[in-house]
Amino acid sequence: MHSAALSTMLAGVLLAQTGVDDPVEIRLVANMGVLVSQGESKVLIDALFADVERGVFREPSAQDRDAILNGTGAFEGVDALLVTHRHADHFNADEVGALLRGPAPIPVLGPDQVRAELRASSADADWIAEPAPGEAADSLARLCGDDAECGFSIEARPLFHNHTDENLSYAVTFGGTTILHLGDADPRYADFSVWDDVGIDVVLHNFWFADSEAGRTVLQERWAEARHIALHVPAVIDREQAIAKFGEGHVLVDPGERITINPGDHD
Fold it and tell me: Per the structure, how many domains does the chain have?
């Protein structure tokens, strides 16, 4: 799927959209890590990290980790890996480096701090892209080789997490469905108006976002018509408890769980 052909990307946008009427599947890897797909088009977000919290959070299954690194099973033909920020429960440079050195390398997009850690780990720089305006075509990651269309688009915009860690949020659009992944945006201080020009159908947020008054206000006042899906559920909270809190179809808890988004059922 990926060749030496390079695609031009402006403002973090990967052009081409197909399959407008096909459902979009969101499959939990663990924590904020998801595989978002429509047919053969697949994007990973925050999906390779280490269990640094010693059981505080769920981690990817060994089967999923191996499948991601080798591009097999549900993870065969993944088009890109997006990283929101460098925290160890979202990203691990050694794990992502292993992916880039393995049999199925894919383009990796992330903020400056993530890209710096990848380069320091001796990851193949050819696969590391800066999701920002003005990037020269010959320095971008390989995307949709052989002049094929990706079948999706991506936009990346910063949302405040804390004063030391850059956090990128991503809007991934498959056909007529746009899914916004907030990373660990702080609902008290982040400027969510950066997304006002984009119609959002699904918002992926962490557990604490909707657990705070500020986060609930953002979701209800800014994205009232979108479906809200909670991720990053602490390990001490089981699926039954999480569903009781957020509702069926509005939370992903255990690795491998899926939610299917059909056109027109975003609410």
Answer: 1
